[in-house]
């Protein structure tokens, strides 16, 4: 069933969009990521312009993250205090990112920036995930289980402005969570992502949060940053396609509930390596689009006066 997208100005199969939203929602529930780092490139592949894909994709991130965080709240695996600190930095970062996005749109360079950003970030994150997942699988097959690492009191614990985060069992400075939130906010605005693929590792390895509360806390922060980002995009660059957003949201909400249930039942090593392979595959596809000569090197557009 073909449906016309008024802002993107193309017709797309509605079931295809529902499927994309559902797939990203499943990833959100399983891994605590917003899923935009895969959704936005997939929208590129079906003909949606990068500007519209970035601005509209954040709507779906809000819906799938909200659906996922409800399941985690029932299990009491969300550190609300840490989430609010991360959110403070995230709102500042997303505001800065939206202004940069609007400037690049005005000079016609936003498509190139978004694509390059995806190639770089997906390449780095995918490679690191793949190496870590393969190592975990090899250790498991060899009958070796890594000894639990003791939490080290490094530079994070030496900073001022310390706060107690009872759910996470931490007493650390508020500065690192704010900086992590700001970085994720900038990425949300420029790349149309929730930033969970960077936030989750940062929360574990930099902040020292327990893994059981990381996913829910990440989703909690993503909800508000993504909502703020999409509102800013709608008012500044006007590139939010509401029809596209609604179809992605419906699929995302359903997928997030499924993903939360799947994530509990399957081995973490297997799911991580599958996600890593998917990330690397999308990165290579985007890189080929940048390097391979297009069939039509020139395009002509007519601007309305």
From TrEMBL:
Keyword Hydrolase carried by entry: no
Transmembrane stretches, start-end: 12-38, 44-71, 83-104, 116-138, 170-198, 204-228, 240-260, 272-292
Classification via InterPro entries: TM_pro_TauE-like, TSUP/Inactive_protease-like
Membrane topology of the entry: Multi-pass membrane protein
Top-level taxon of the source organism: Bacteria
Keyword annotations: Cell membrane, Membrane, Transmembrane, Transmembrane helix
Locations listed in the record: Cell membrane; Membrane
A Pfam family this chain is assigned to: TauE
Family named by the database record: Belongs to the 4-toluene sulfonate uptake permease (TSUP) (TC 2.A.102) family.
PANTHER family in UniProt: MEMBRANE TRANSPORTER PROTEIN MJ0441-RELATED, MEMBRANE TRANSPORTER PROTEIN YTNM-RELATED
Name of this chain's protein: Probable membrane transporter protein
Organism lineage: Bacteria, Pseudomonadati, Pseudomonadota, Alphaproteobacteria, Rhodobacterales
């Amino acid at each position: 069933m073909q449906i016309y997208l008024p802002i993107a100005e193309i017709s797309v199969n509605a079931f295809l969009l529902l499927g994309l939203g559902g797939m990203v929602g499943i990833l959100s529930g399983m891994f605590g990521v917003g899923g935009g780092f895969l959704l936005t490139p997939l929208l590129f592949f079906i003909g949606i312009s990068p500007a519209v894909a970035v601005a509209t994709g954040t709507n779906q991130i809000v819906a799938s993250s909200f659906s996922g965080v409800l399941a985690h709240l029932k299990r009491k695996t969300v550190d609300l205090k840490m989430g609010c600190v991360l959110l403070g930095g995230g709102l500042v970062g997303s505001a800065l990112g939206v202004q940069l996005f609007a400037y690049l749109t005005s000079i016609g360079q936003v498509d190139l920036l978004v694509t390059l950003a995806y190639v770089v970030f997906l390449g780095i994150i995918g490679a690191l995930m793949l190496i870590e997942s393969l190592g975990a699988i090899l250790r498991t097959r060899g009958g070796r289980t890594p000894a639990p690492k003791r939490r080290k009191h490094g530079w994070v614990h030496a900073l001022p402005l310390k706060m107690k985060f009872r759910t996470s069992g931490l007493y650390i400075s508020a500065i690192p969570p704010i900086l992590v939130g700001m970085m994720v906010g900038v990425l949300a605005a420029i790349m149309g992502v929730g930033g969970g693929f960077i936030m989750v590792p940062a929360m574990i390895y930099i902040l020292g949060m327990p893994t059981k509360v990381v996913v829910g806390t990440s989703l909690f922060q993503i909800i508000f940053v993504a909502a703020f980002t999409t509102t800013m995009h709608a008012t500044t660059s006007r590139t939010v396609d509401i029809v596209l957003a609604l179809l992605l949201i419906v699929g995302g909400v359903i997928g997030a509930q499924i993903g939360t249930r799947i994530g509990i039942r399957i081995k973490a090593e297997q799911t991580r390596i599958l996600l890593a392979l998917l990330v690397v595959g999308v990165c290579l596809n985007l890189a080929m689009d940048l390097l391979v000569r297009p069939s039509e090197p020139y395009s002509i557009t007519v601007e309305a006066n």
